[in-house]
Amino acid sequence: MALSHGYYPSLQISGGNCKKVITTEYGEDTISNDFVPYQLKLVVHQADTKQYHSQKIDSIYQSTFKNENSLISLAKNLMRCFAVFGLLLGIGFMFLGFFLTGLMVVVAFFGVNSYTLLLADTHMQQQSQRAN
User: By three-state DSSP, how is residue 20 classified?
Assistant: First the structure.
């Protein structure tokens, strides 16, 4: 009857070996080993029906990304955009006369993102071969 009204039971075990802080009359704390007898408690909780913000985010996430492959493809497309953006930005710096700055931007954006995409594709191919 309690379950139908949103309540659920749980068992709690408490007790055992523990540390106890004892304060002396001079205000100094000492730690001593102590033992509390074991107890078994039956606790009845009421289910929480509050709607949290994280639950809304989870539902949006579940409706947006139907499976893991759609999330991976979105991440790869974003990395491709960053790679192209870095290449264009680096060439722009080089065109303006900042050759080393442009080279560093190309390596940081285009190089790293392209290398990561290559590694991801290689990893996915290896996983598909292992599955077969």
Answer: strand
